[in-house]
Design brief:
Layout: H1 14-35, E1 43-47, H2 62-72, H3 74-79, E2 80-85, H4 89-101, E3 113-115, H5 121-128, E4 135-139, H6 149-156, E5 162-167, H7 169-175, H8 182-189, H9 191-201, H10 206-223, E6 228-235, E7 242-250, H11 253-266, E8 270-271, E9 274-275, E10 278-279, H12 297-307, E11 312-314, H13 315-322, H14 330-342, E12 347-349, E13 365-367
Parallel strand pairs: 1-2, 1-4, 2-3, 4-5, 6-10
Antiparallel strand pairs: 5-7, 6-7, 8-9, 11-13, 12-13
Helix pairs in contact: 1-2, 1-11, 5-6, 8-9, 9-10, 12-14, 13-14
Amino acid sequence: MQSQQSGFFDEQSEASQVKATIVAKYFGAWTRVMLSQGHVREVVYIDLFAGPGRYKSGKKSTPLLVLEQAIANPQLRASLVAIFNDSDPNCVANLTSEINALPGTDSLKHKPKVTNSIVGEEIARLFEQTKLAPTLFFVDPWGYKGLSLRLVNSVLKDWGCDCIFFFNYNRINMGVTNEIVREHLNALFGEDRAERLRQRVASLSPDQRELAIVNELAQALQDLGGRYVLPFRFVGKDGKRTSHYLVFISKGRLGYDIMKEIMARESSDRDDGVASFEYTPVKDKQLSILFGYARPLDELGGELLGIYAGREMTVKEIFDAHNVGTPFILPNYKEALRRLEAEGLILTDPPKEKRRKNTLADHVKVIFPKQRGHHGP
């Protein structure tokens, strides 16, 4: 059987390395949070398009990076259930061999399971009928076949379950109006939403088309109950056009905040300290179109003055109330607030004279003046 990813694992690109780093870092943070809950005895990692485990260059891909973390952590060694799948029997054989050769694999309480199945409705049906332990679900298809809203929701439905998937924007963009792949696109967006999208995109510019497609996907995921959707953009080798998105979905705010910090650190560019939430291999004109990305911190400060006029809130309360759907992380809010304070536009308690220089702790109270903007939520 010819792998749909034939040639993909010959050489690891920088973008693939960034993707693997983001997934592996989130896996580490997610398992720490889950296992800190007294009632959690097992955590599950599922990768439905796992690949052979290594690139031909010898560099490890995501399955081995995840298992290495588990082997190095006594608590994870005793609690991780890892399930890897690939439709290509050659990938399955290679991955099984790589896992068996990984130092310390025998120390895992649960032997990693490697299966050879084609991902489709039957797997989604199985997950729907199963109450899952806390699960991190990674879906990295070569294109879009096998990736569906039903599949994502079948895992996301249970407590402690998060999903990360690779969204091949380049191929999906080409396939939106292609009747041959209508069924796959309906499964990915939902039939009604996919049909509306087909009608809309014909008259849109490339940038508008991208915004429409990705925002429709985010809305579809949120409608399923994934309250927090966070996309990370990968730009192609030309430094201009989008190739992929890595999309994170969670029902939990903590997972969103953790992943946002990770994605911000892995971004290739920053504007005024604000991460681009994208990896661009060639420095060129930025295309930051989602959720108002690339707004500078001075604009953030002005927005906070308007939204929270007349209110008193701690720094952490401001961050928690405002940051979802923006590119800003907590240090960005602190810098924006420090600038407002320096300009005399807000008051703080304790004031800067009574704090360490250039610091603004989470618990510091911010007093916004009443005369600007409207009252926020």
